[in-house]
Design goal:
The protein is about 35% helix and about 15% strand. By secondary structure, it is of the alpha/beta class. It folds into 3 domains: about 325 residues, Thiamin diphosphate (ThDP)-binding fold, Pyr/PP domains (Rossmann fold, 3-Layer(aba) Sandwich), CATH 3.40.50.970; about 190 residues, Thiamin diphosphate (ThDP)-binding fold, Pyr/PP domains (Rossmann fold), CATH 3.40.50; about 120 residues, 3-Layer(aba) Sandwich (Rossmann fold). The strands form 6 sheets. It has a 7-stranded parallel β-sheet, with helices on both faces. Helix 1 packs across helix 3, helix 2 packs parallel to helix 3 and helix 5 runs parallel beside helix 6. The longest helix is centred in the middle third of the chain and has 24 residues.
């Protein structure tokens, strides 16, 4: 590890810095802040405002150094100066702040939450509103750079880097430490650019980091170069930024640059900064980088009149941007439901389809090969085939490499395809999913595994953010990942390994959710996910991975199933039983000797409403069976739809049979009491038939 102070920075000739451009962009940033603070916020035309004053000069210098086509940066709510340096239209920036049509999101997201897809130059990855959420997707982009460069031999990635911006507060987040681990263990070309202004809203840096200096604390971190200095000193900031970027480009290794800067306004417009005393505020304004920039340039590199003319030009550009932004309409409210999922309108950036991928022809007619195989083998064979025909597919997670996964699903895949394509990760679910998001944004097909359903909780923020990317960027970005997740009971239960709770993912907009009950369906649903253009939760029920009933013949390498299309596993006229996952087998057993429709939904998002409705309108009775808890389980959604759309067709109340509202118990006898059994399903069915 190298720790470099400002004094040891690489000398950057003044001729290597476009000072006039920097002066203009910093003053443009100030003019936009001024417009918002003095006019647009008081007029209630901007509802959320985050001033960049104090952070602006160093950010502009960084943006001017990002010149490679596949460079990408992910920032946070105070990063507009960086966007200006990348070439964002100021009218888009202001229009986004005003929530008008166009811009970053068509008014769907707050204007400080930006994105900038750029197919011909450096891009700004879609940021999120949560502090620290920017780190792991950036690490994923950095890993994708190296994958394209080393594994696929793409020369245009040779000097590309990934850059993440964060403040002194965000370095306390799980995302920061996870990304730091990923970047250093994988030796990724990633720049951690930390703007330390001393406060996270009102909480001082010393509460976030011992001693208040993350650079000092990381002095012993292996395989990380650490640099720090004054982000208000124009010459020092330019020198440090240039060296940091070039070191990452040349060494293909991570670096952390900490620059101290003042936050000259409150955290947001509403923040009065009452927690700062007058002396501190005065000291911060004495460090104003704009004033220091003027002193550095005038008269050494430009005249006072040239400086003033630049300021006037910036004010004029800001005013022109305001006029253009105010002239933009509010988006048609009827469009706000578009782009939750891919609807045929291709996103600007992200996913394999945007890069020109054409999926092979598929069929939903099975062409059985050989004898019956279990679900483990079926999933492994599908992954194997898709890895063999599509070099953009990568599989990763905890223990998926040499061990082959704790359920043996990935056994042998690393040996066959190599550690670049099938690899183990550090123990961080946020890092696993966040990394997958960045890789998908770069055009790969990430297939991360969460070892057990319950372990997904630390990744819940990244899961939510991934699902909303297409919608909140108004189809500018998408991150189609296939998140494999075993769960449910197996021989016994417990609160940590046996949870199902699929409904939590159905309630995350933008995710498709698959819950196969058997090997054939697992093949078809997984193949569709791997060739699709939306993020998918692929739920692998532990009890069915090697269950004799779930075994089927392999349906062929061209077999794929549509999402939202249920299977009738049994046909009848007296009752409709709706179920999925491990309960399908039990419902089939319970329905023996009864004229019943047994419907295996197969996918919960989307779910096959029409098949369920048409069956219930014919049988006039419905029972819904699932392993998840009863209260607010997905069965409640099905029941609500039936009550609303098929009420007059019913001859009996809609009935549900679920687990009680308790965690999964460990002892097999307790588990058997809690989970719907064949006997209890049959008893409930007979009760409903006699109504």
């Amino acid at each position: 590890m190298a720790h470099l102070s400002m004094a040891k920075g690489l000398h950057v000739p003044e001729a290597d810095v476009d000072w006039k451009r920097i002066a203009y962009l910093v003053q443009l940033s100030r003019a936009l802040d001024e417009l918002e603070e003095t006019r647009l916020v008081p007029e209630k035309k901007v509802l959320y405002q985050f001033s960049a004053r104090g952070h602006d000069m160093a950010q502009v210098m960084l943006g001017c150094r990002l010149t490679e086509r596949h460079d990408a940066v992910c920032g946070y709510y105070r990063s507009r100066p960086l966007l200006l340096a990348l070439g964002i239209d100021p009218a888009d920036a202001l229009g986004s702040s005003m929530a008008r049509s166009g811009g970053y999101s068509d008014g769907r997201d707050i204007g400080a939450v930006f994105n900038f897809p750029n197919l011909d130059g450096p891009s700004a990855l879609p940021m999120c509103g949560g502090v620290g959420t920017q780190y792991t997707p950036t690490a994923g982009w950095a890993q994708a750079i190296e994958y394209f460069r080393r594994t696929l031999g793409r020369k245009e990635y040779e000097r590309a880097i990934a850059v993440v911006l964060g403040g002194d507060g965000s370095v306390a987040s799980n995302g920061f430490w996870s990304a730091l681990t990923i970047a250093t263990t994988q030796k990724l070309p990633m720049l951690f650019y930390i703007e330390d202004n001393g406060f996270a809203i009102s909480v001082p840096s010393t509460t976030q980091t011992p001693g208040g200096n993350i650079a000092s604390n990381l002095s012993g971190w292996k395989d990380l170069t650490v640099m720090e200095g004054d982000g208000c000193d124009p010459a020092a900031a330019a020198r440090l930024t240039a060296e940091a970027v070039e070191r990452v480009r040349d060494a293909r290794a991570p670096l952390l640059l900490r620059l101290t800067v003042p936050r000259l306004e409150g955290h947001s417009f509403q923040d009065t900064q009452a927690y700062k005393n007058e002396a501190l505020v005065r000291d911060e304004w004495e460090r104003d980088p704009l004033a220091k920039l003027r002193d550095h340039l005038v008269p050494a590199l430009m005249t006072a009149e040239e400086w003033n003319a630049t300021a006037r030009t910036a004010v004029t550009a800001a005013e022109q941007a305001r006029a253009e932004a105010e002239a933009r309409p509010v988006a048609d409210p009827r469009t706000v439901t578009r782009h939750v999922f891919f609807d045929g309108d291709m996103q600007t950036m992200g996913g394999q389809h945007q890069a020109g991928y054409k999926a092979p022809e598929v069929t939903d007619e099975a062409a059985p090969e050989g004898g019956r195989i279990n679900m483990v083998t079926a999933i492994r064979r599908t992954l194997d085939h898709e890895l063999s025909i599509n070099k953009r597919v990568v599989v990763f997670g905890e223990d998926v490499g040499p061990k082959g996964g704790v359920h043996a699903v990935t056994l042998g895949l690393q040996e066959r395809f190599g550690p670049e394509r099938v690899f183990d990760t550090s123990l961080s679910e946020e890092g696993i999913v966040g990394r997958a998001v960045g890789m998908a944004l770069a055009g790969l097909v990430p297939v991360p595994e969460i070892q057990f359903r319950k372990y997904a909780e630390p990744a819940s923020e990244q899961i939510n953010d991934c699902g909303t990317i297409r919608w909140r960027t108004n189809n500018r970005f998408a991150a189609p990942i296939v998140l494999r997740m075993p769960g449910g009971f197996f021989k016994c239960g417990d609160p940590w390994h046996s949870q199902t709770n699929e409904v939590a993912f159905v309630h995350q907009p933008g995710w498709k959710v698959a819950v196969p009950s058997n090997a054939e369906d697992a093949v078809g649903l997984l193949r569709t996910a791997l060739r699709g253009n939306d993020p998918v939760i692929f739920f692998e029920h532990r009890a069915m991975l090697d269950h004799p009933w779930a075994r089927r013949a392999y349906p062929g390498d061209g077999f794929a199933l549509p999402y939202g299309k249920a299977r009738f596993t049994r046909r009848g006229d007296a009752i409709t039983i709706v179920t999925w996952g491990a309960m399908v087998h039990r419902c089939e057993e319970a329905a023996e000797g009864t004229s019943a429709d047994v419907i295996d939904l197969r996918t919960l998002a989307p779910w096959d409403r029409e098949s369920v409705l048409s069956s219930v309108r014919r049988t006039r009775r419905c029972m819904i069976v699932h392993e998840d808890l009863g209260t607010a389980g997905f069965g409640a959604e099905i029941a609500a739809v039936l009550a609303e759309e098929a009420f007059i067709d019913l001859d009996a109340p809609i009935s549900r049979l679920t687990m009680p509202d308790i965690p999964s118990p460990h002892n097999p006898a307790l588990l058997e009491w809690a989970v719907p059994t064949t006997e209890r399903i049959r008893s409930k069915m007979e009760e409903l038939l006699s109504y």
